[in-house]
């Protein structure tokens, strides 16, 4: 998971000074990776992330936890 966070979300480049904020953002990124991995479409994590940004219907499908 660290590689995905580093390459796709560029987590190591983040320079958040507030420790609590950094922890919350890190948790949010890990949660996003989990949701993207659970989605059944065969595409890369980066591709799914971009598709969520372009299409709100796709984002709704990814966020559907049930």
UniProtKB/TrEMBL annotation:
Which top-level group of life is the source organism from?
Answer: Bacteria
For this protein, the record's InterPro entries field holds: Transposase_11-like
Name used for this protein in its record = Transposase
Organism the protein comes from: Paludisphaera mucosa
């Amino acid at each position: 998971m660290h590689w995905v966070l580093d390459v796709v979300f560029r987590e190591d480049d983040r320079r958040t000074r507030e420790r609590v904020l950094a922890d919350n953002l890190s948790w949010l990124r890990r949660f996003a990776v989990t949701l993207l991995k659970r989605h059944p479409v065969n595409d890369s994590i980066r591709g799914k992330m971009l598709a969520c940004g372009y299409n709100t219907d796709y984002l709704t499908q990814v966020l559907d936890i049930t």
